[in-house]
Amino acid sequence: MSDAAPALELDDIQSGVLRPRPSPYAATYILLRIDDRRDGREFLRRLGGVITAVRPPKPVERDTSVSVALTYEGLKALGVPQTSLDSFTWEFRQGMRARATALGDVGESAPEHWETPFGTNDIHVVLIGLAPDVAKLEAALASGRAAFEDLPGVVPVWRQDCHAPPDHKEPFGFRDGISHPAIEGSGIPGDNPFDPPLKAGELVLGYRDEIGALPPAPVPEILGRNGTYVAFRKLRQKVAEFRRYVRANAADAADEELVAAKMMGRWRSGAPLALCPLHDDPELGADPTRHNAFMFRADDATGYSTPPGSHIRRSNPRDADVAGVVRLHRMVRRGTAYGPLLPEGVLEDDGEDRGLMFAFVGAHLKRQFEFVQSEWINGGEFLGLGDARDPVTGSNEDGDASFSFPRRPLPRKLRNLASFVVTRGGEYAFMPGLSALRWLSELTDEADG
Predict the structure, then answer these.
(1) At residue 188, what are phi and psi to the nearest 5 degrees?
(2) Taking the CA of residue 260 as centre, how many other CA atoms within 13 Å lie in the half-sphere pointing to its CB?
(3) What cofactor does this protein call for (predicted)?
(4) Residue 123 · residue 117 · CB < 8 Å
(5) Distance of CA 445 to the CA centre of its chain
(6) Which of 22, 121, 150, 272 is the most exposed place for a label (fewest CB within 10 A)?
(7) What are the residues facing 158 on neighbouring strands?
(8) Three-class SS of the chain
């Protein structure tokens, strides 16, 4: 019985925790501030009929959802009792601004350069809408807006519209949104047949994780169960600078594509170097049954196909021989492009803001998101690469960073890497279960003492 998949309470877990996103889709992130706790509680009460569960109680349009998450400051603004506030993880209570140095948010990415209201105490609620197209998204968001528009104590302070086109290309030109792990008991398949389902407790509080333990959860039990943590990040991509760097380090157009693929670990089509190391294969890249069906160590321990320091091998080493247990650092990553794409071939920045809105979902902020960001993206010791950082998303602020990839007879080395991705803001949030949402909405001022 102990080996049986847990019976996840799918009617209480928000859809955004477990369900993969449709293709294509549009998304919107709305940040709100709670100025009056009673209005805030009423807002959450109304949202109870808007938020989508993994298994909703009534028919809803497929692939359309609204999710909500609350920051530590938001929970305080609602009047959550101090004993409950103190039971949340230390990282969550500190907030992303306080964790900036550990996350590599320095230099141009430092909090003093973030967009307002990021890095302040004014972000209390994160409302996320998702739908196959803009019209359906706006219809879904209309219900979310109706829940607060007549409540003066709930104030929208920021909005970011995002999109994922049919080819799922992000601003650098690579297919994105490929890897989605299977979660035990969810009934939702992953996209790598060689990767066993993760224990539910890696993603959702109240269930056993990969080490057989229950992740630390806030109290009372109704507040923590079926919830999870989310790290939200707005990341601006320096597309023109990335293109110029690749061109300057390549012999010709074909070599440009190879250099870019080695840095990423995939060709632009999404085809992985692990399966086609010598040339792109757009048909493979577009095939969701094949483009993530691979591991590393068995066939490519040295990295002649997929360099050890490439982005996809750093962010998910799979079965690679690295320090630590890879599965303890897995999480769900969801990135959605924002801003207009820079036209093909343009090498000068046009001044437009473009990049990705990221949501990293997991039950363990420190050993999932923070570990991956600090040790795998902005470090290289786990791969025997010294202090080398991710060539695409790493914090290469000093300008003398390098990236090497195995090649016979000698490795090829790229020098003077820059930071091609800049943090424009971010925050930690807690995405409660629907029962917890009701509990929060029913708080009374008497509970404050």
Answers:
(1) -105, 115
(2) 27
(3) heme b
(4) yes
(5) 35
(6) 150
(7) 31
(8) CCCCCCCCCCCCCEHHHHCCCCCCEEEEEEEEEECCHHHHHHHHHHHCCCCCECCCCCCCCCCCEEEEEECHHHHHHHCCCHHHHCCCCHHHHHCCHHHHHHHCCCHHHCHHHCCCCCCCCCCCEEEEEEECCHHHHHHHHHHHHHCCCCCCCEEEEEEEEEEECCCCECCCCCECCCCCCCECCCCCCCCCCCCCCECHHHCCCCCCCCCCCCCCCCCCHHHHCCCEEEEEEEEEECHHHHHHHHHHCCCCHHHHHHHHHHHHCECCCCCECCCCCCCCCHHHHCCCCCCCCCCCHHHHCCCCCCCCCCHHHHHCCCCCCCCCCHHHHCCEEEEEEECCCCCCCCCCCCCCCCEEEEEEEECCCHHHHHHHHHHHHCCCHHHCCCCCCCCCCCCCCCCCEEEEECCCCCCEEEEEECCCEEEEEEEEEEECCHHHHHHHHCCCHHHHC
How many residues are there in the chain? 449
Distance, in Å, from the CA atom of 403 to the CA atom of 123, rounded to the nearest integer, reads 37
pTM value is 0.95
> Rounded distance, CA 449 to CA 83, Å?
10
Q: Are 238 and 418 in contact (CB under 8 A)?
A: yes
What six digits make up the tokens of 283? 């048909």
